[in-house]
Specification:
Length: 166
Amino acid sequence: MPDRLRELLIIRHAKSDWSDETLADIDRPLAEKGKKQACKMGHWLAAQDLVPQRILVSPAVRTQQTLARLTRHWPHKPEALEIPDLYNATTDTLTHLLRQQPDELTRIAIIGHNPGLETLLSWLTGDETLARLSTCAIAQLLIPGRWEELRPREAKLVQLVTPKNI
């Protein structure tokens, strides 16, 4: 049994705005509902003392806006790294990024997109029934060992929280 657990927060971006059909997918902003969702979830994360040390975030406008609203009222701003490969990332890409994280980071968040985040959640827990991430949902996972040792079916889902159920 490893002496330390890592914590991963898988965060799907908040609800996006589809009103401008001329925008490329990567350029879609948050809808008004999404802005409220992200603020609500940011307050919840702070109240639960779940502010991560580092956030890996997709370059999409809606993920960047989700990040800004999540962290708006946090007591300190964690390091946020914009990772181009997070846009439309596969499980292989996501696990590769996580395995490269420094061992001293014990809580990391990823803000990204479905279906990649849902398949990552299934891969990590081994439970495909868990993999429903609505907009701005947060899955809190405990992972044994070091980031570089990340393996399938070893993470434990602590909680799956959505803006509707807080």
